[in-house]
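Researcher: I'd like a structural prediction for the single chain below. Treat it as a standalone chain; there are no partners to consider.
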Amino acid sequence: MIDEETGGFSALPERGVPAPRVLDEIAALRAADRPTHGGRLFAYVYDPAVPGLDELTAAAYAASAHVNGLDPTAFPSLLAMENALVGAAARLLGAGPGSTAPDAVGSVTSGGTESLILAVKTARDARPDSTAPRIVVPASGHAAFAKAAHYLRVALDVVPVSPETLRPDPAAVAAAIGPDTVLVACSAPSYAHGVVDPVTQIAAAAEAAGVRCHVDACFGGWTLPYLRRLGAPVPAFDFAVPGVTSISVDLHKYAYAPKGVSVLLHRDPALRAPQYFAYADWPGYTMINPTIASTRSGGPIAAAYATLRHLGDDGYLRLAARTREAVAALADAVRGVDGLRLMAEPESTVVCFTVTDPGLDLFVLVDELTVRGWHTQPQLTYAGLPASVHLTVTAAVAPRVAEFGPDLADAVGAARAAGPVALPPELVALAGSLAPDALTPELVAGLAAGLGLGGGEGDGAAAGSPVPERMAPVNALLNAAPPALRERLLVEFVGLLQRPSWA
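Model: Treating it as a single chain, here is the predicted structure.
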């Protein structure tokens, strides 16, 4: 956005800009984003396609945007809404009066990553006797567990998953538990492939070892109970399972609340107690926080409360039924195209597929789907698992699902005609042998320029965008690199994109 007075884009112009113009500027910037509504984006956002819901949540957000969650005694409205959200999540996940977890408690967080970090922090702090705490996590566990381990200086013991079932072996999980293990994790379902881990067996192994067990249901915790009510064979995964001590569920996913709201639940108050941080040894106010953040806007919490109240239990059941139908239709579309294979039969709200034809480049296929208006999420090869395409399916997809099959077949044909990405052999060799520490800013800048990253106009990028329109060469290079080099390359690439505007 060009500022007429400064000649460039500036968040702090010399003189203030009228409100309508500011909103026009934001709308113009948003025009370059992926579509958040319309059922063609299969990642990042969750759209129920419920008329009027956006307006309701925007109004609720605005009504509480300036309320501060730092002190619940100062703003009891926010405390009441948080307690209501926690209660709704707990009941949905097998806790509350009359259940096997009648004393369950919880906290509202900013998202799944914060919930998982807090779950690890709570388990670590509950074991002050352990000088070298460790957590056991399946390879399919969300990357936020690794982030938590990194931030909290907890060792990460990764258990491989079967290439056939995409699940960890419970015996292998049990074998990984040691004297310093403070937490065992599992997923319901895993994000990458949408399959539910063997929670009952894993929780039993953790309980037998006297270790906490966290179920990461951030992705599916709000849909699996409804899918079960619709007749889907959903395995036990919640507080009804003995040994499950905590569960996380995101409300900004399939509860369809705006970003960012998650709930972290514990089976009882004693288990939650180490989650809190309190500090009084300074001259200011005594700090007491249940979450990582101190100051928290009430906007997201009020928006989530409004969403749950408006949709209701019956509304979520209808949305789950609509989503289930869309998942089945998308899976049928994949099965109907030669050269594609489902990574797993859909168990939740994910369709994940890979290619079986050597002449069909999965990353070119992803680009061809993007050209046709379908925004999917490519996943790179890992430990014997092939690269795949991930589709997070929401209720908004249902009205568009009939269009996907023909477009998928057409995209596959175009990808075959285009052929696989041909990276220079020396670049492939470099990606396979280069140590992450050997990357220099000059080398990364050269790679980025060659791949069309950070080039603004030209280099295949959309006008004004530092990202190329076709990402297949970038994904092919990352796919050729081992995970440690991928991480470093992505850090450097994103660092090139995230630079201050000095206008």
